[in-house]
Specification:
CATH class of the domain at 50-147: Alpha Beta
Number of helices: 9
Structural class: alpha/beta
Helix content: 40-55%
CATH architecture of the domain at 50-147: 3-Layer(aba) Sandwich
CATH topology of the domain at 50-147: D-Maltodextrin-Binding Protein, domain 2
Number of strands: 8
Distance between the termini: 20 Å
CATH superfamily of the domain at 50-147: Periplasmic binding protein-like II
C-alpha cells in the first residue's frame, strides 16, 4: 500500500509477486486494480512448488498418489501455507486437472506448520517451496513426488515436473521488483540496470540453485507482458475453479 501511494521518484520500490498483484485483486477489494497500477522493473525468479508426502507413505510416484485419490470417496488431504496462497492454488488446480478430490487443509502458521501437519501424519501430503522441504528430503522424512513447473529444479534434479507426467499444472510464485506507476524514466533506467546486474551475477545464480529458484531476468517491457499473461491465466483459473470475488 505504501508503494502504491508513494511518489514515483524511484526511492520507494516493492518486492512483488504474481499472487498478490495479479490474483488477489480478482478476489479482494483493494485500493489498487492490480499489477497495472505499478511499474514493473525486473523479474527476479520463479519459485516452483513441490508436492511432497511423508516418507513412510506408500506412494512412490505421482501416479500412485493420483490412483489412491481416485479410489477414496473423499479424496486425499493436502496441507498448504493458507487459503488462496500459491500452494493452495496449486492443489486446487491440480485436483481439477487430474479429476480427483483433494481436500485442502490450510495452515494458520504458514509452510512450517503445514509441514508439521504432514510429518505428524495428520494429512496425506503438502505443497511447499523447494527450500522449505529440502532439509526433510535430505533427512529422509519427506518424499517429493512432483514439481509444479515446466522444467526441473536443480535442487531436486530427480523429481519430475507435472508437465512431464502429463498434467499441465505449471503455476509458480513469480517474484519481481516494481515501483509506483509513472515512475521517473531515469530512475526506472537506473533501478533496472542495478537489479539486472545483481540478478545476472554468479552469486545470485548460486543462491538460486541453493533455494530451488528458476531464473529469468526479464526487463520492464517483457515483464509487463508476462504479468498480462498471468492475468489471463488467473482469470481462466478463477472461472474453472469457481473462485468468486469477496463482497
Amino acid at each position: 500500500m505504501d508503494v502504491f501511494r508513494a511518489k514515483p521518484d524511484g526511492y520507494t520500490i516493492l518486492l512483488a509477486d504474481n499472487i498478490s498483484t495479479v490474483f488477489q485483486p480478482r478476489r479482494l477489494k483493494l485500493p489498487y486494480r492490480g499489477y497495472q497500477d505499478f511499474q514493473a522493473i525486473i523479474k527476479l525468479s520463479d519459485v516452483p512448488n513441490v508436492l511432497v508426502v511423508n516418507a513412510k507413505a506408500s506412494w512412490k510416484t505421482l501416479a500412485d498418489f493420483v490412483a489412491t485419490a481416485h479410489e477414496k470417496p473423499d479424496g486425499l488431504t493436502v496441507t498448504t501455507a493458507g487459503p488462496f496462497t500459491g500452494t493452495d492454488l496449486n492443489v486446487r488446480e491440480f485436483g481439477h486437472i487430474a479429476k480427483i478430490d483433494l481436500q485442502t487443509v490450510p495452515s494458520t502458521g504458514g509452510t512450517a506448520e503445514a509441514l508439521t501437519f504432514l510429518l505428524g501424519g495428520h494429512v496425506d501430503a503438502a505443497v511447499a517451496a523447494p527450500a522449505s522441504i529440502i532439509g526433510h528430503v535430505s533427512a529422509g522424512t519427506l518424499r517429493p513426488v512432483a514439481v509444479f513447473a515446466k522444467r526441473r529444479v536443480e535442487l531436486l534434479p530427480n523429481v519430475p515436473t507435472t508437465v512431464e507426467l502429463g498434467y499441465p499444472t505449471t503455476m509458480t510464485s513469480m517474484f519481481y521488483v516494481s515501483a509506483p506507476e509513472n515512475v521517473d524514466e531515469e530512475a526506472l533506467r537506473k533501478l533496472h540496470e542495478a537489479f539486472d546486474q545483481a540478478v545476472r551475477s554468479q552469486k545470485w545464480k548460486e543462491m538460486a540453485t541453493k533455494f530451488g529458484l528458476l531464473l529469468e531476468p526479464l526487463g520492464p517491457t517483457e515483464l509487463t507482458s508476462e504479468l498480462k499473461r498471468w492475468d489471463t491465466y488467473f482469470s481462466s483459473l478463477a472461472h474453472e475453479l469457481n473462485i468468486q470475488p469477496q463482497n
